[in-house]
């Protein structure tokens, strides 16, 4: 099975991508990165204004990957028990017992919709699930199904009624993807798909199942990486820290740099990207491409950076260009 997956990894990847793009128009690069994030076993945060198809993208992906799916709509009044589950009184044969009622978190693919509209207390309920893939309720620890992914959507912080995600939770996301407005041609195709009967007749095939996804993840982890390429990824991470970096853009605008989790994410994602391109080794180009989704939510600008609207992508671009 494993040899078959490694041999056909690129074929599986392209089939999944092709099937998802039947329903999602104009977001080809986002779909690629989303698939790499899932195959790498990470959680993905997607940011964009409402109406750009973030929710539809995740729902489509669950159908194509044949995974159990739960959608959690985050609102200010959502409580942790609404996500994790709670104990209920169960009466049987005149006896009362407590029975644990599992929440929607107990699925393989979780859509945390508009995650930054909930309060920090509720957002933090996902921390253990995202990192340890377990849930603690009372004195009991429950294992989550495998594979397990949280795909979260968030609105830009400039929009009303949003709460910024704490740094500790942001670091649990492997990727952060930005969803932009499609171009004129893509918008025309979206109108043809969504305002005609074609949308009702859209038939999506199930390309792989949970076993194949787990095998693809294991195959990606076995891809070798040369020492100079690994050192390059480490240099990129160190260059994000004001005390370590020699770059003016970092010293002037960055408050806090990337944690070691950032390097882990870049290397694992680069391995999956290499296999998706039909290669069995990681290249410098893989590291550069994966630096953006892996680091943009882990670089925090200082007051000067925020006031001058310096975007983390601008900082990553300079780092990738100048670090040798």
UniProtKB/TrEMBL annotation:
InterPro entries in the record: ATPase_AAA-3 (IPR011703), CbbQ/NirQ/NorQ/GpvN (IPR050764), ChlI/MoxR_AAA_lid (IPR041628), P-loop_NTPase (IPR027417)
Which terms does the record give in the GO molecular function aspect?
ATP binding; ATP hydrolysis activity
The segment(s) forming the ATPase AAA-3 domain are 44-175
Top-level taxonomic group? Bacteria
Give start-end ranges for the coiled-coil region(s).
none
Domain ChlI/MoxR AAA lid stretches: 249-319
PANTHER family of this UniProt entry?
Answer: MAGNESIUM-CHELATASE SUBUNIT CHLD, MOXR FAMILY PROTEIN
Name the chain's protein: MoxR-like ATPase
The organism encoding this protein is: Maledivibacter halophilus
């Amino acid at each position: 099975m494993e040899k078959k997956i490694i041999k056909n990894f690129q074929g599986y990847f392209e089939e999944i991508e092709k099937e998802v793009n039947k329903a999602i128009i104009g977001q080809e690069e986002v779909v690629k990165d989303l698939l790499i994030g899932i195959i790498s076993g990470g959680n993905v945060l997607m940011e964009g204004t409402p109406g750009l198809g973030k929710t539809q993208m995740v729902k489509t992906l669950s159908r194509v990957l044949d995974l159990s799916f739960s959608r959690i709509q985050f609102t200010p009044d959502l409580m942790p028990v609404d996500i994790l589950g709670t104990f209920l009184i169960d009466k049987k044969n005149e006896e009362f017992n407590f029975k644990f009622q599992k929440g929607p978190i107990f699925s393989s693919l979780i859509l945390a919709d508009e995650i930054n509209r909930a309060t920090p207390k509720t957002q933090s309920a996902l921390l253990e699930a995202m990192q340890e893939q377990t849930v603690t309720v009372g004195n009991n620890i429950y294992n989550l199904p495998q594979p397990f992914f949280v795909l979260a959507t968030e609105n830009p912080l400039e929009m009303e009624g949003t709460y910024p995600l704490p740094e500790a939770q942001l670091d649990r996301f492997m990727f952060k993807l930005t969803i932009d407005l499609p171009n004129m041609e893509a918008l025309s195709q979206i109108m043809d798909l969504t305002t005609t009967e074609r949308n009702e007749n859209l038939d999506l095939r199930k390309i792989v199942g949970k076993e194949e996804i787990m095998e693809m993840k294991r195959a990606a982890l076995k891809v070798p990486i040369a020492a100079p390429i690994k050192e390059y990824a480490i240099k990129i991470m160190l260059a994000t820290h004001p005390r370590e970096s020699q770059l003016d853009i970092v010293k002037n605008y960055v408050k806090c740099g990337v944690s070691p989790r950032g390097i882990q994410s870049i290397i694992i994602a680069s391995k999956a990207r290499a296999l998706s391109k039909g290669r069995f080794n990681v290249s410098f180009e893989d590291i550069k491409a994966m630096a953006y989704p892996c680091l943009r939510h882990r670089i925090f600008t200082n007051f000067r950076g925020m006031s001058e609207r310096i975007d983390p992508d601008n900082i990553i671009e300079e780092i990738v260009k100048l670090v040798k």
